[in-house]
Fold this protein.
Amino acid sequence: MLPYKTIEDFDLEGKRVFIRVDYNVPMDEDGNITDDVRIRRSLPTVNYALDHNGRVILASHLGRPKGEPDPKLSLRPVAIRLSRLLEKEVHFIPECIGPEVEKEVERLRPGEVALLENLRFHKGETKNDPEFAKALASLTDVYINDAFGTAHRRHASTYGIVPFVAEAGIGFLMKKEIGYFNKALVSPGRPLLAIIGGAKISTKIGIMESLLQKVDKMIVSGAMAFTFYRYLGWPTGKSLVEGDMVDMAGKIIESAWKGGVKLYFPVDTVVAKEMAPRAESQVTPCQEIPSGWMGLDIGPASIILFEEVIAGSETIIWNGPMGVFEMEKFKKGTLSVARAIARTPALSIAGGGDTDVAINEAGVTDQITYISTGGGAFLEFLEKGTLPALEVLNEKEVAQ
Ligand code: AMP
């Protein structure tokens, strides 16, 4: 049982159903959508609301327009793409609050859908201004949040609006995201493995500490591993080390040891003299990184080690690359890990930052159980087990 309502709990017939979606899609210079997966993932909720005769109002942000209109960040192209995907007209309203919007919304008939203009064209959205939240609420009979990707933000449309609406709950995408997190973290098949890579310990420390309470095994890789090597007194050359996190690295090792969590680090590394696509490179054991060289990917022995750890796990949570996978020369470790996860029958969830990009490149998107649509939200959910946009729905339930 979830501690908040879902769209299926409401009678939507003839109601103004305001759905906060995440249509923050990538676009090229000419305003063409280059990847519409976020729009596609909203379809189950939008179609459900339409099939149940809701008068559907969709709202989203796109990019970071600094609180004022920016034609390059208009959601109009999204309305056109959505219309094609729904095979239905989508009324685009070139504002998101005010009397004109209210009039347009009043004209919507049951089973019709409108998309509002970019919420962040108003400063009130990111400032969580109560007046802006009230203006959005005035368009709403039933509020549905289906924007997992922004659920870690206390913004007017994700957070501030909730106390001002009569009824509020979540959509199918949000439900799915929460469902996979619960499967992976609340009642996981064991052993449960977390793979944490990426650039900096400082941005992942909370997640690592929190996961150490739950997992059986943890792989720590990417540039982060070098701060641990510094703690162990090994030479790190020019590798990325966070000097002020060295003590913290020691605490992580101690906390894993106390909790009986097995920690795995790369055992060898691909080093180069500079971070450049054609840099000269070689493989060295992690205890022997030569001075003047930097570790930019895991080596072949680490790939074998990690493949074994992955193959022996029932549940896998993955965030962050093993190396500088943006460069051909240093992507092998990351792609090998993606493929190793894809080969196991384990329940696997991945997300945050570039992890989905790496999975795509490895060509294994369909073999990962669930790839989260959230970047920052994925990481915060891993760390805290909840998100502000969900908390506020929960508070509303408790209060009612
Ligand atoms: P994050 O956002 O913390 O998940 O970090 C992702 C970034 O970490 C990517 O852009 C990678 O290029 C970078 N990264 C991973 N491994 C290394 C490494 N060994 N040295 C430098 N950068 C790295």
The domain at 7-173+386-399 is CATH 3.40.50.1260 (Rossmann fold). DSSP finds 15 helices and 15 strands in the chain.
